[in-house]
Amino acid sequence: MVNLEWYRTFKAIYKTGTLTGAADALFISQPGVSLHLSSLEAYVGYKLFDRTGRKMIPTERGKVLFNAVAEPITKLEDVEKNFQKSTEKHTPTISVGMCFETFQTTLEQYVSSLPFNLIISFGEYPEMLDQLDKGILDLIITPKKGSSPNIEHEAFSSEQIVLVGGKEVDTDSFKKILKTKDGEQIEEWLKKEKWYGTTGDMEHLFQFWTLNFGHKPNFRPNFIVPNLNSIIRCLKGGAGLAVIPDFLCKNEIESGDVKLIWEGKKKLENTLYFGCRKKTNYQSEIEHIKGLFRKMMGK
């Protein structure tokens, strides 16, 4: 079945004469416009435009199709606008991408009070950047910046990657080893401890170990659990080590349930960014989410 958004995109390309112009008019990415057009051309079975440089020149079949759909699409758009104006309460829906642990630690507690609908998506950062560019996501929280000209990144906080452990870890003996400044001794002491890791992401441990010892760890964690918040709950049992972002365990460190063992010879920090498209229909909703993150991360 044909997607009516394909016709809306087709009309915008026809009117503006470029993919970029259509993207600006519809507040979606240029790749999204190209996807709609290629899907419509595959559906109808013939080319609708000839590409001359950046200009999109309608073919004869494209002109015929435009004449057939332009008026109905305009009427549907008018109905949509009038319906929105006459509806007492129009509740927008925005889609936000971030890692699972960040959601649990920050936004989860505010979801029930949001004045708009929300869809939360979890995934790898490259995938979320691609979905943001294509218009599938409206906002992402990420430590990595993309290269798309359609996306703007705003730094709002930072996270320090630190070594933490359960309250039963013998930190006194570790402090004595640290005073020697002997990297091999420090590494051997750490390797003798029990370690926690997560199923899909060992990047924090790799980065921390490489920065401090010049190579990736030559051991595997003893316990693999679903996510970083699971690690924190396990560490509260008293033993074990893990490398995680400090903001995830700030409360547990302050309460004494988890110990801050070592920040490393050099601090390992990641900048956190808001990522969103430069043009969006949901600016106020996005600013609302940003405000909640600034409130939480500023604590």
TrEMBL record:
Residues 2-59 form the HTH lysR-type domain. Signal peptide: none annotated. The keyword Transcription applies. InterPro entries: LysR_HTH_N, LysR_subst-bd, WH-like_DNA-bd_sf, WH_DNA-bd_sf. One of its GO terms (molecular function) is DNA-binding transcription factor activity. Keywords: DNA-binding, Transcription, Transcription regulation. SUPFAM superfamilies: Periplasmic binding protein-like II, Winged helix' DNA-binding domain. The keyword Transcription regulation applies. PANTHER family: HTH-TYPE TRANSCRIPTIONAL REGULATOR, HTH-TYPE TRANSCRIPTIONAL REGULATOR GLTR. Belongs to the LysR transcriptional regulatory family. This is DNA-binding transcriptional LysR family regulator. The lineage of its organism: Bacteria, Pseudomonadati, Bacteroidota, Flavobacteriia, Flavobacteriales.
